[in-house]
Write a structure and sequence with these properties.
There is one protein chain. The chain starts with 10 loop residues before the first strand and ends with a strand. The chain has 8 helices and 7 strands. It has a 7-stranded mixed β-sheet, with helices on both faces. Helix content is about 35%, strand content about 25%. It has one domain: Aminopeptidase (3-Layer(aba) Sandwich), CATH 3.40.630. Bound molecules: acetyl coenzyme *A.
Amino acid sequence: MSAAVDMDEIKISVATVDDSERLLKFLHVHYYREEPLTVGCEPPEPDAADENFLLSNLPHGTCVMAMHEGRIIGAGVAGPKMPDEADHLFEEAERLAGSKWGCILGLLAIVERDANVFQRYNVNKALHVHAIGVDSSLRGRRIGERIVTALAARGRELGYPVFTSDCTSVYSARMMKRLGFELLNRMPYTDYVDAAGKQLIKPPAPHEFVETYVLRL
Ligand code: ACO
């Protein structure tokens, strides 16, 4: 399947609410099955609250799909965040405690607080990418890079001063570095533990850290 893809024929377009069903279908196969937080805690399937959260970003016009001959081959889901984001994430993690999504939000709250982009960059809003997925038969061809570049361009058009990403995967982290993003924070997965010291999320090798990156737009 991958050999048949003409890289020049890939078009990146802004996704809309009408794309919800096909976008989620794509993310199930090419994002959630490998995304380190999703596979690093039980149950293996993504939480419905996680899926609904991703889809809730569509009305902002901040999500994109990479298309080839009418087929989705990549996607990026981003949305706005405000300076109270870390507090909001801690509250949501507490409200959803005991669920998979609550556990993931707990980690994202810590990295949001520690990256502290609003104070460090003196901004009052940011565009944050929540998910990037590329067709698993087409990895390593810089399609992810094109998706991130399109999201950054969209953020610039919409007046966002910065673009941030919590890279849960070493592959997305490599991509951000190559694109000139600045590393704000690195948290080892072994640091995310419960009151008894038990590690809460255990992504498979080679994913050891969640790294937060920022790009000024
Ligand atoms: N195995 C080994 N290396 C890989 C793989 C893989 N499956 N996928 C990408 N890479 C490497 C590439 O070789 C490249 O490394 P290099 O800079 O040393 O050459 C780097 O990762 C990025 O390659 P790209 O071609 O720019 O990106 P790609 O189009 O392959 O997409 C992505 C990268 C989106 C991370 C893809 O691997 C993917 O969909 N993964 C599953 C979902 C996921 O984990 N998403 C990221 C979570 S973090 C977030 O969403 C914000």
